[in-house]
Structures are given as structure tokens and as C-alpha cells.
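Kindly go through the following sequence and its C-alpha cells. Advise at your convenience whether the C-alpha cells fit the sequence:

___
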Amino acid sequence: MRRRRFTFASLAVVPLVALLGAVGAAPAHAAPSDGYASWSAVTGSAGAWASTLTLPAGFPATTLASTSRTLALSGGGSQWPTFATPTPVGIWGAAFGDIDAEVIGVSATSASGDPVAAADLGVTAFNYCLTATAANPCGGAAPLTPLPTLTASADSVSAADPLCPSVSANCNTAGASIWVQPGVALSTLSVTSTFVSGIPQAQMWFASVARTVAGVISIGELPPVTVQLVEPDGDVIAEAPTAVDGSFILPPVIPADDYTLVVVPESVPTGFVPPEPVPVDASAGDVTTVTAAVVPDAVEPPVDPPVDPPVDPPVDPPVVDPPVVDPPAVAPPVAPPAVDPPAVAAIPTPDRELAATGVDLAPLVGGAAVLLVLGVIAMIIGRRRRTP
């Protein structure tokens, strides 16, 4: 049996439709605004096909590589839509339909690269011809509309038409499909198609919940401004200009509760300021009532403070050494002239013994001599004091 393989890396959340149909057919596409992704033109050749996908805001960048001999024919080879980042959980899914002359196998790896258990792949069977919608792709009741049979292993699930190939005429049924909605974040989703009979055709779709964010920015008579929806890491995932009345609507985005809406400052005229960022919670549904206002810039222009004229720093007076004054000359002391004491007349010694008078004269004579000496000394001192 021949096997073809579709490998999807890092799936994320947003609708995507691709049709693998007859030989030479390109993937079908629709505009992202209607809930589906669009495919670029397929390039390359047999065994090396390539394409890119445009998805609603928030879906990782997506490329497609195929080793099939044709991108559309279910005749062998592999297809790998590759996504830039691991998938969110619970808001996206993929469908693989018209399973009849092939066996479709599904496996995946987690964000850490480990195999995902079969139970976490979230594979269920349905038949799109049996839906009650007005857009029934089968165009009415089909003769054979079975549900595919699911067989699970540890880390994969396969789906096969229960009527083929036991009865070869039954290998061309209608609408047998599987829905894959993983319960864990994925880094890759691998889908293989094993040939059973004839020239099988298969279809694949990707779908996701998409949210609309819209509102009004009050701009008065100002020209339109630009609004952006920003993720917590600062990535801008959606952008749009306002209308002349300030209303805006952004491209569909994946559900999240931590968006922020900002008005691009560069789009606001001089003299006005953009509003503060507005938190946006689009996790539970569309958000269509976001409001904010561009207002005049009320900040006064800065005024430079008055500048005082420069003041010369104080100058210390020069240090002046005090004049050196020689002390007045002092004349050395002058010794007083030597004065010879006055001659004292000798007292004659009587040549004879004086007559006794009854008075002893010795004390009188001695006292007179003392007085004489003292008088001489006093005269000498007096002269010294008068000497200049």
C-alpha cells in the first residue's frame, strides 16, 4: 500500500481550509475575515511543493511543504503545514474528510517534543453529509454515508472506511470524516494517508474560534488615527485606521483575555495626545464597545528658569606681612663715675689724757663715724639717679 503523509507543526488557533482534491487542483481558500485562512499559490514541483497560509490575527505564521507527486492527489508523499509556535489549547481543530479508499492516521508531539497520548489527540468521527446545515456539501442524501472506524494505539489514532475494501464498490463513499481537537499544546501534528483502493481523494480543514474587536476613538475634527491590538509581550497582532467618525474594526483575532488596545502616537496630530492603553478581554466573545478619546495636549511647555548673572567668587584679601619694626635702641647702662668719698679729717688724738668728765665719749665718736659714712653713701646714690 502507498502512504501519503501530512505533517502539521505548531498548530494554533484560527480557521484554515484546504482541499486536497483531483490531480492539479490547488488548495481551496477563503478570506481570513470569514473565519478561514487563505493559501498562497502553490509553488515547486513533484515531491517539493510549497505554500503559505494567511490566518486571522494571533495564529502563528504557517507554511506548507509537500513531498507528494501532486499537492492535491492522494497518491503518495507527505504534506507538512508548519507553524511558528506551539498551539493554544481548546480553541482550534482540524477535520479530515471523505475517508473511503485510504486510511488516515493521526499522531502528534507536544510542545516539549514528546509523543502525545492518543486520548489527548481528541479524535472523533462524523460524516459531514449527515449534518443538518443548509451548506451540506453532499448536495443531498448520498447513497453511502458511513462513519469511519477509529482504532487507537498508545500515541496515534487511525480512521478507515468500514465498507472498503471488503466491497470494492463501497470504496467510494461520501462524507466520512474525523475531527481532531487536541487537549494539549502541540509542536507538530502528523497526518498520514495510506492508500487502499483506486485513486482516493481527501479533504482537510482547519478551524478556530475568532473574535472581533471594534469600537470608537473620539477624535472630533481630527483626521483618522491608527489603532493597534497588542499582546502582553508587545507584539502587534492587529492594526486598522479609524474612519472619519473615529469608529474602527480590527481583523479577527484568536480568543485571549490580555490584549491591549493602543492608539499609535505617531498617528495623532501635533498638539494632541493619544488615550491611555485600553485593556481588552476577548476570551468569552467579541468586544465591540471599546472607547477612548484623543485629547488636546494640556501640558504647558517647559519654561527655563531665570538665570542669575554670574557672580564672581569672593576673593580673599592678599596676605600682607606686618612691617618689621626694629626695637628702639637702648643705651647700655652707664656706670656712675667713681666718687671718692670726702676726706674725713682725722681727729687729732689728744696728746694728753683728757680730763675725766664723767661721760664716756667712745659711743659718741662711733655713732658720729657711722652717720658720716651713711651721708657719703646717700650723696653717691643721689648723683647716680640724676645722671641721664
Remarks:
- The longest helix spans residues 362-386.
- Residues 227 and 263 are 4 Å apart (CA to CA).
